[in-house]
Each structure stands twice: as C-alpha cells, then as structure tokens.
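Table S4 entry, adenylate kinase.
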Amino acid sequence: MERRLLGRNQGRSDDNIETIRKRLKVFVESSLPVIEYYESKGMVKKIDATKPAPEVFEDVKAIFTHMA
C-alpha cells in the first residue's frame, strides 16, 4: 500500500514513506476502532473500491436502495 500511495504523486510536499506510515498509524488507531464498533452492530457495508468508478457507484447505490 505504501508503494501505491507514493506512486500516486498528488503533489504534496509531505508525500514520503515516513508521512504515509504516520497517516496509516493514525487511521488504524483512531478510525479503525470506530469502524469495528459499527461493524459489530451490523451497520457497516463493505464495497470493493478497486473496481472502476461506475461499478463502485452501482454497488453503493444498491446498498442505499436496500436501506430505503
């Protein structure tokens, strides 16, 4: 994942391996527990975001359609 993020070249001056590792650490420590909590309540839906954008959109749309 680190290589993929480095290869994106978003033009940020702080896009280096150390900064990316820090960002991932912050995500794991702060966001992941929240996701795990809601997942334990059956409230998380997972989407494969590696697919082309139109397919991801259809997957998201299907989830919201079932929620309505």
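The chain has one domain: 2-67.
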